[in-house]
Design brief:
The complex is a heterodimer. Helix content of chain A is 71%, strand content 2%. Chain A is an all-alpha fold. A two-stranded antiparallel ribbon of chain A has the order 1-2. In chain A, strand 1 and strand 2 form a beta hairpin. By secondary structure, chain B is mainly α. The relative contact order of chain B is 0.07. The chains are: A mainly alpha, B mainly alpha.
Chain lengths: 230, 113
């Protein structure tokens, strides 16, 4: 097999079906991204299946119930002295997480511009928003467990399965956010110290951390829609 | 800027998407706040959800600028999840029908304390 036959077609056919065939069929690297980024995408794909299965399980349970499902709008209402506002804490949590996604996108951009300091501080802002989110979730769990008596095996508001699906799904998501906060702090410190500049000469690691963080926000979009709003 | 590693885009696009995400989130919260019910509620929830999810994946995660080979590998497999959802919807429906058959309609919620 001569060298000429095995030419890298990667840069010739980027966006159409021929490009897909060329990328997979040729005797060469398939994905034209840094390996770390490809691996993060595959990890996130597997995580999609985990959360997807959780949400599907929740759907199956909820569809097959005769008992009334507790009304999330009322369960998660919060009163600030006056009338309880429906779902307000969850709405604030959603806005906090979206804010964090924005600062993360900025951090990735600053990383590629080589602006170490700005990238670092934006990542710290993202981590702070994430920590705030987890704090509010802890508050929400406490309120549900202590004040309203929700347990994984039952609750006073309706179908017994509410607690188990709620704790499972939001708990697993909260765990992802917590891990993300630690991840961002670790990568952020290395950005600030110039570690990536010395060892790699680029800030792809910031984008990879960003992929994870945006995914956590993405999962929340689905949880918000299916668990809290439905 | 090599296409392989650089995902450098103007800041304005991030600000735009950021703003849109806030707007869509506000709207989906309003669906609950205004107490829309039935098909209208479910449609609005799904529309805002897919808009948000799409913008996050396409712009914030830069998938729109990746090569098609990566897009196919990332977006293809989740279709299997849709099949699972469909199968489980049949299953849930069947379980409910069976329960109603055997236990009757709308019994009080069982209490497990």
């Amino acid at each position: 097999m001569s060298e000429a036959v095995m030419t890298d077609t990667g840069d010739v056919l980027p966006g159409d079906a021929d490009g897909v065939v060329a990328d997979f069929a040729a005797d060469k690297q398939t994905f034209h991204v840094p390996w770390g980024k490809a691996m993060m995408w595959f990890f996130l794909l597997s995580d999609t299946f985990i959360f997807g299965s959780f949400l599907t399980g929740y759907m199956t349970v909820r569809m097959s119930l005769r008992d009334a499902w507790p009304v999330p709008s009322e369960v998660f209402a919060l009163s600030f002295g006056g009338e309880p506002i429906p779902l307000i804490l969850i709405a604030i949590m959603t806005f906090v997480l979206i804010s964090s996604s924005g600062t993360m996108a900025m951090a990735v951009n600053m990383g590629y511009r080589g602006d170490r300091n700005k990238a670092f501080w934006l990542m710290m802002a993202t981590a702070a928003f994430g920590a705030m989110f987890v704090g509010m979730q802890a508050f929400e769990w406490t309120k549900l467990i202590v004040d309203e008596g929700v347990r994984p095996w039952g609750n006073p508001m309706g179908a017994a399965q509410f607690g188990s699906t709620f704790f499972m799904i939001t708990g697993f998501h909260g765990l992802h956010v917590s891990a993300g906060v630690i991840y961002l702090i670790v990568v952020g410190r290395r950005v600030k110290s110039g570690f990536y500049e010395r060892t790699r000469g680029n800030y792809e690691m910031v984008e990879i951390a960003g992929l994870y963080w945006h995914f956590v926000d993405l999962v929340w979009v689905f949880i918000f829609a299916f668990f809290y709003l439905w | 800027m090599a296409q392989e590693s650089g995902q450098q885009h103007p800041l304005s696009i991030y600000f735009w998407i950021w703003g849109l995400l806030f707007v869509f989130s506000f709207f989906s919260y309003m669906v609950d706040y205004m107490n829309f019910q039935g098909a209208l509620r479910w449609t609005l929830i799904l529309v805002f959800m897919f808009l948000k999810a799409g913008f996050i994946v396409a712009i914030f995660m830069h998938l729109a600028w990746e090569r098609l080979a990566l897009k196919v590998v990332i977006l293809g497999p989740p279709i299997a999840l849709l099949v699972l959802v469909l199968l489980m919807a049949f299953e849930g429906d069947y379980t409910l029908a069976t329960r109603i058959d055997f236990f009757g309609e709308g019994a009080a919620a069982p209490v497990h304390d």
